[in-house]
Design brief:
This protein is of the alpha/beta class. It has 16 helices and 47 strands.
Length: 924
């Protein structure tokens, strides 16, 4: 053993000496020369590890190389680089990715030598200060599929040579100073019309002029977004637009387009956002009733023929926003428009509408604002119970006291400065240093990555809908691997872009590493992050992020450097030997300890706040035991998966069948959550709660071993994925069983537990279809210091849960209570009745149910939303009672929701009534 130790130590010394004495550079010589030219240009603004001599061998921040040490990627976003873009970049012949985004002090023109990068696939230069013309040579990049040069100061014309880029999917030249017309191949050798596979033309907010050529569009194009707004285009809207059947977002607003809207635009049946405002369009407004997917329609500030409000608007059931300001409309508002189920904003300012305006209880529940300023409305009847804001300033109705039946605030000036920000209620008193900010989840002072997040074509206009922004924050947090994301000051600018500020907080540390910032910047710039569909196309402008203290430039003499280097090398060798010896001894000791104390590895984490779990009946399994039980985690034994990892069916050596939940690498970071679930489940014993048999914390694995529940999740059965047909009675019994399990947690567990993630995938069904509540990974114990009042225990905490099931009051106030579980359970009840997921295609099930019931009643609900399987049932006794009770559970205010004890009693009453009536029906 001692001989082996001496040999190992010698090898360590040899490695240390080789690394100190220097070896020939690993980086390809030509690439090394050119990278050093970049370093020379950007000087002290480059990362500290760029001072090492070998970019590939030393892993310079942002530099990626192949196995043969050729540079393939430069990802340098948000580094604070200063200077110009050296032409030497064009000599990095193997380069496939180039990202210098969010370096606001990078100036000058981009070199034509970039056209030599024939292997380049992604070029990102977003949010810098580049100027001059876009070089024609970029047309040589035949492998390019993503080109984003937006938010700079480029001038001149769009190079026709870009039409050569046959592989291009994304073209973003927005927010520059580009001029001239759009190049097409009939007037040039090349043109944008040759980009058959492009999905995105973002050419908005420039100084482009001339007409939009009809030859730009043809039937082989695959365009999804066409953004030409904020330019100076003239002439007519080309009728050839109808050939681009894939188009979803069309923004031609804020130009000088004239003539009438082509009638065949109604053939663009996939369009969801249509912006034609602030032009010089005239003639009649065509019938757009065929655009059944339309969410956002803005025709404001044009010169159409005076006419009444088009009745076909009422047929567009997906509309959220109608903007028809300053169009000389006459007559009265067609009331059916106000009943559109998703409508949020109706803007008919500055027209000549007349008569008496009425708002009754039939208006859409989604409606937030009706803006009728400066019309000729002589009276208004606004029902007292209606919460929608009406704006009637500048109408005769506001001059007569008797003209308004209710809501005189309609005649007050309208303040448009409303914005949305993530609530920070529990962190208000937190004071941090100048560089750090309070994490909205934990209130700890951290240094977030900040920037501007902008949306060019959102499908909504209501900033009061917090659930939308909850979904945005959740998707950002998940995709970026952040601890939390804080969205603030989200509002619409004067061009109907939704702008917001974001703060992205790191996990379990004060700040991000530079590699993490580079990765996040690239992910946002290359559109690897997709915002929820209602937000539309997104772009991000990151702020400079300073990682640690800046390293001073080396001004020491050569002799001093040599002496220091030799001294450092000797110290390194000595430390390496001592460290290696200590490591060997520690491993030997750890091995002995583990034989007698299996939790030793966990105990070593106590300084991180994670101690040995307090077990009551749960057994610790070795990795080998569970590997054998699952036949090496064979795919055939996989029975489920999720963000945490996978679930396997296994058979223990004693023949007992179990379910083994195995965390993936991304889930291993949260030891506390893993320990939390073990401790909770090991002391919770109830017929309707899944029992924990044990766990594995071995070989860097985290696994939980549960009793095997044979019939899968409730969601799988509801949606027919298990072959089990759930009739009405069985659904009520399942709901009752789940409620009893949750009631045990709330009322009888000691201390009480808030589940925090109640959903249909966390309710399992055994062989008798008895419901069993599962997954306690994010549950919270109600501490002794918690206030218990009215059956609730209030706990200030972080927001966790699943979108669609998440209690909006909990999200807004960050106060977790048992009533948060009640809300989630109410959503599960609605799932049982409708067989629909809580969020589907941007629609929220709770809101959809409320809307249909309000407009159409129970009969309409049966027709529109009830599960077709239930419609075929002969007996669905208690349906209205259960539906009404589900709506009580999802009341917005927690105090209006029942306790879980009352939920159990109500469900027991429904079950008993159903049994009695079913028995009577059978006898008759």
């Amino acid at each position: 053993m001692e001989t082996q130790l001496l040999i190992s130590s010698f090898l360590v010394l040899a490695v240390c000496f080789a690394s100190w004495g220097g070896v020939e550079s690993l980086t390809k010589n030509e690439d090394l020369v050119n990278l050093n030219k970049l370093k020379l240009e950007w000087k002290d603004t480059v990362p500290p590890n760029w001072r090492a001599s070998d970019p590939c061998g030393s892993h310079w921040d942002g530099v990626n190389c192949t196995w043969n040490s050729q540079v393939t990627s430069l990802k340098l976003s948000t580094m604070g680089l200063k200077g110009i873009l050296p032409s030497a970049i064009g000599s990095l012949s193997g380069l496939e990715t180039l990202d210098v985004s969010y370096n606001k002090d990078l100036t000058g023109s981009i070199p034509s030598s970039l056209g030599n990068l024939i292997n380049l696939k992604i070029m990102l230069m977003i949010g810098c200060s580049f100027s001059g013309q876009i070089p024609n040579e970029l047309g040589n990049l035949l492998n390019l599929n993503f080109l984003a040069l937006n938010s700079n100061g480029f001038t001149g014309a769009i190079p026709p040579a870009l039409g050569n880029l046959s592989q291009l999917h994304w073209l973003d030249l927005a927010d520059n100073q580009l001029s001239g017309s759009l190049p097409v191949s009939n007037t040039n050798e090349n043109g944008l019309d040759k980009l058959h596979d492009a999905r995105h033309f973002h050419l908005n907010r420039n100084k482009l002029t001339g007409t939009i050529s009809p030859n730009l569009f043809h039937s082989t194009m695959k365009l999804v977004h066409l953004l030409l707004d904020g330019n100076a285009f003239t002439g007519e809207i080309p009728s050839t637009l109808e050939l681009v059947e894939s188009l979803e977002v069309l923004r031609l607003d804020r130009n000088s387009l004239s003539g009438s809207i082509p009638s065949n635009i109604r053939n663009l049946r996939n369009v969801s956002e249509l912006y034609l405002s602030n032009n010089k369009l005239n003639g009649a407004v065509p019938d757009l009733s065929t655009l059944t997917r339309l969410h956002y329609l803005d025709l404001s500030n044009n010169s159409f023929d005076p006419l009444e409000i088009p009745p076909w608007l009422a047929s567009l059931q997906q509309l959220t926003t109608i903007a028809m300001e300053n169009l000389r409309f006459t007559g009265e508002i067609y009331h059916k428009i106000l009943e559109l189920p998703l409508l949020e904003t109706l803007n008919f300012r500055n027209n000549t509408l007349n008569g008496t305006f009425k708002v009754t209880s039939n208006v859409s529940r989604s409606l937030v604002l009706i803006d009728l300023e400066n019309n000729k409305i002589i009276g208004a009847q606004l029902q007292k119970a209606i919460t929608v804001s009406c704006r009637l300033v500048g109408n005769p109705a506001c001059n007569l006291e008797s003209a308004l039946l209710w809501n005189t605030s309609a005649c007050e000036p309208y303040y448009k400065g409303h914005s949305y920000s993530t609530p920070l209620t529990h962190c208000r008193d937190k004071i941090c240093s100048a560089d750090s900010k309070p994490n909205p989840r934990t209130c700890q002072c951290q240094i977030p990555y900040e920037g501007k997040l902008k949306f060019r074509a959102p499908s909504f206009s209501d900033l009061n809908n917090a659930s939308r922004f909850m979904e945005l924050e959740t998707t950002l947090q998940t995709k970026l691997g952040a601890d939390s994301v804080f969205v603030r000051s989200a509002n619409f600018d004067d061009q109907n872009y939704l702008t917001s500020e974001v703060q992205i907080f790191p996990v379990n540390k004060t700040g991000f590493r530079r590699s993490e910032i580079i990765g996040t910047g690239f992910m946002m710039g290359s559109q690897n992050y997709k915002a929820p569909s209602s937000f539309g196309t997104t772009y991000f402008i990151g702020d400079t992020y300073f990682v640690g203290n800046s390293v001073p430039s080396n001004s020491l003499s050569s002799t001093t450097i040599i002496v220091l280097s030799i001294t450092a090398a000797v110290l390194i060798m000595m430390i390496a030997c001592m460290g290696f010896y200590a490591l060997v001894q520690k491993r030997r000791a750890d091995g002995e300890i583990k034989l007698h104390k299996p939790f030793a590895g966990w105990e070593s984490k106590e300084e991180q706040g994670t101690s040995v779990p307090n077990l009551k009946g749960a057994r610790m399994f070795s990795y080998m035991e569970l590997e054998k039980a699952t036949n090496r985690f064979a795919q055939m034994n996989e029975i489920g998966s999720g963000a945490y990892g996978k679930v396997y069916k296994g058979i223990l050596s004693g023949g007992e069948m179990v379910a083994i939940k195995r965390a993936n690498q991304a889930s291993l970071k949260d030891r506390k959550q893993f320990k939390n679930e073990i401790e909770l489940l090991s002391r919770v014993h109830h017929r309707n709660i899944v029992g924990l048999l044990g766990f594995c914390f071995d070989k860097e694995e985290q696994m939980l071993v549960y009793e095997y529940i044979s019939n899968g999740t409730l969601r799988e059965s509801i949606h027919g994925q298990t072959g089990i047909r759930l009739d009405w009675r069985r659904r009520i019994l399942i709901a009752l069983g789940a409620a009893k399990g949750l009631n045990y947690l709330h009322e009888f567990a000691n201390p009480p537990i808030i589940h925090r993630d109640v959903k249909s995938t966390n309710i399992l069904l055994d062989e008798r279809l008895v419901a069993m509540v599962a997954d306690f990974g994010i549950s919270r114990v109600v501490s002794d210091g918690g206030v218990r009042a009215g059956g609730q225990s209030h706990v200030t905490t972080q927001v966790k849960g699943t979108m669609g099931y998440l209690d909006p009051e909990y999200y807004m106030t960050l106060q977790l209570t048992e009533k948060s579980d009640i809300y989630s359970f109410g959503v599960v009840l609605l799932e049982l009745i409708t067989a629909r997921p809580p969020i589907e295609r941007g629609k929220n099930l709770v809101q959809e149910v409320k809307t249909v019931l309000e407009l159409q009643g129970f009969r309409g609900f049966r027709h529109e939303l009830m599960d077709p399987v239930l419609k075929q049932s002969m007996y669905i006794t208690g349906f209205e009672n259960l539906l009404n009770f589900a709506l009580c559970c999802v009341e917005e205010l927690p105090e209006n929701r029942p306790s879980m004890d009352i939920v159990v009693k109500e469900l027991e009453s429904i079950v008993e009534n159903e049994r009695l009536l079913n028995s009577i029906s059978t006898r008759i």
